[in-house]
């Protein structure tokens, strides 16, 4: 695939992701109805149905709540969890990888073995167990995702740090008396940011999926707060009679995750010299 095509797809993904983010921020303005308002006489109305002058473009759920409004507000939950958890995991992983790769020895052994232990446990199982202990709520969901995804960043940072720390400019800085903090912040950190940015972009999509999975299992954001995973869980009992309950939140998850992955691929093309040389 050419660089131009990848650039187009990357821009399309970025535009889609921005549109979802804007709709989440402006949810009170864009949502046609209150996402929590129940209206039992209008329950399970199909998409486009009109009753008493009220139109529901994507239909209503089993409690008469507007599906479109809940999908829009659900974007708030998914994107907030994704971005905050990615920031938390990225910061923790980058610090751990830098320290392990630069100091080696005991620091390397402790941090990287801890990362190995976390990576050896299936992520979803670890997340389910942790949320079950801490309790299912919005804050604990972010903490669980942020604290269990940092090893991926740490591994990437660790590998990059090992390569950069042996470069001549690092030895020159050390010979001139530069402190470890200066070397880490001024020379090693800038050299590991490019791959970390790519990983972080791809992790946004994964975080959205993980949040939806935990909410689907009842371990994420609790009802009646709208979330895409919770809407999928509610709609699974109505697949034969009210297909729209699970279809539209599922499409929202698919489109958003696809957009995040396209942005990640586009960033890899821009930031990775080997990918650029291979594409030309």
User: How many helical stretches?
Assistant: 12
Number of strands: 2
- Beta percentage is under 5%
- For CATH, the homologous superfamily is named as MetI-like
The top level CATH class name: Mainly Alpha
CATH architecture: Orthogonal Bundle
In a nutshell, what does this entry contain?
Helices cover 74% and strands 2% of the residues. By secondary structure, the chain is an all-alpha fold.
How would you describe this protein?
- This protein is mainly α.
- The protein has a single domain (3-35, 47-279), classed as MetI-like fold, CATH 1.10.3720.
- Helix content is 74%, strand content 2%.
- It has 12 helices and 2 strands.
- The protein has helices at residues 3-25, 27-30, 67-103, 105-120, 123-134, 138-148, 150-164, 168-175, 180-216, 228-235, 244-271, 273-279; strands spanning 49-51, 54-56.
- A two-stranded antiparallel sheet has the order 1-2.
- Helix 10 (228-235) packs antiparallel against helix 11 (244-271).
- It is elongated.
- The N and C termini lie close together (9 Å).
């Amino acid at each position: 695939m050419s660089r131009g095509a990848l650039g187009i797809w990357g821009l399309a993904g970025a535009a889609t992701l921005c549109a979802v983010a804007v709709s989440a921020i402006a949810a009170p303005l864009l949502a046609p109805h209150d996402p929590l308002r129940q209206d039992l006489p209008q329950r399970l109305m199909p998409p486009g149905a009109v009753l008493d002058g009220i139109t529901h473009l994507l239909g209503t759920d089993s409690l008469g709540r507007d599906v479109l409004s809940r999908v829009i507000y659900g974007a708030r939950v998914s994107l907030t969890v994704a971005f905050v958890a990615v920031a938390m995991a990225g910061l923790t992983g980058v610090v751990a990888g830098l320290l392990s790769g630069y100091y080696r020895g005991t620091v390397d052994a402790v941090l990287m073995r801890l990362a190995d232990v976390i990576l050896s446990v299936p992520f979803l199982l670890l997340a389910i167990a942790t949320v079950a202990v801490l309790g299912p709520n919005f804050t604990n969901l972010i903490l669980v995702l942020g604290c269990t995804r940092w090893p991926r960043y740490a591994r990437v940072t660790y590998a990059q740090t090992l390569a950069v720390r042996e470069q001549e400019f690092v030895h020159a800085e050390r010979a001139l008396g530069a402190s470890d903090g200066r070397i880490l912040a001024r020379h090693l950190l800038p050299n590991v940011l490019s791959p970390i940015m790519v990983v972080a972009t791809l992790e946004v999509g994964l975080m959205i999926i993980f949040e939806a999975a935990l909410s689907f299992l009842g371990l994420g954001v609790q009802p009646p707060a709208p979330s895409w995973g919770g809407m999928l869980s509610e709609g699974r009992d109505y697949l034969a009679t009210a297909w729209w309950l699970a279809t539209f939140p599922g499409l929202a998850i698919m489109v958003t995750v696809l957009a995040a992955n396209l942005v990640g691929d586009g960033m890899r093309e821009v930031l990775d010299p080997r990918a650029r040389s291979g594409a030309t």
